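Support reply, case 0932

Customer input (verbatim):
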Amino acid sequence: MNEQDILRILEAVGAGKLTPRQAMERLKHLPFEDLGFAKVDHHRPLRQGYAEAVLGKGKTPGQVAEIVRAMLRAKGSRHNVLVTRADAKVYAAVRRVSRAAKWHALSGVVTIERSRAITGKGTILVVSAGTSDIPVAEEAAITARMLGNRVERLYDVGVAGLHRLFEHRELVTGARVIICVAGMEGALPSVVGGLVAVPVIAVPTSAGYGASFAGLAALLGVLNSCASNVSVVNIDNGFGAACVASCINRL
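Our regenerated output:
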């Protein structure tokens, strides 16, 4: 439930279309709804501008389905529903709750799109260094779109062949925020950062050989970037990068 949802309820009460008791029923689960095993944060869109996402990893399919059910039945709310790090079993459980659920197998994301409203001011560009980085990049791209942003993708343009990146320089320089996803040594975010005057959010990935230490080498690489407009999220955290990018894109 966001500011507009609250405003509509108050306006309905003022116009006599809704009784105070009916309004109370719609608002009674603020700030959260206690399911016993989870406390669903219906208040988050009002505080942060976007709804709570459900981390599928570590939860049973039934738990995820019940959380999604609670999010969908919240009266007066039409925000999109996002489940990250899900598998086919989680998707099947969510699909039984809502036939509108969509499975994005490459990224492990389940979405229920209830609003196509664009609230971001510009375009978020998601760039991946290699094809192996695309699952994390897709998590970022899907999340950013579900949060109300225009999203463009540019994949497999890493430093092993920089001419592939320069071929799309107009797309890169036209973005308002860039999410740059890279494994191995994590070099691409520094290159992209040196080409643009906008925030670049680096996402190190666990793609790489033994000495990459499951993404630690890439993480250290981007943390030491000499491009001063590069910031960093955790290894494989496409979701977190999209949330930060969305906040920036609304400013």
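We compared this against your earlier run and they match. Two observations from our side: The chain has two domains: 3-112, 123-250. The chain has eleven helices and eleven strands. Please reopen the case if you see a mismatch on your end.
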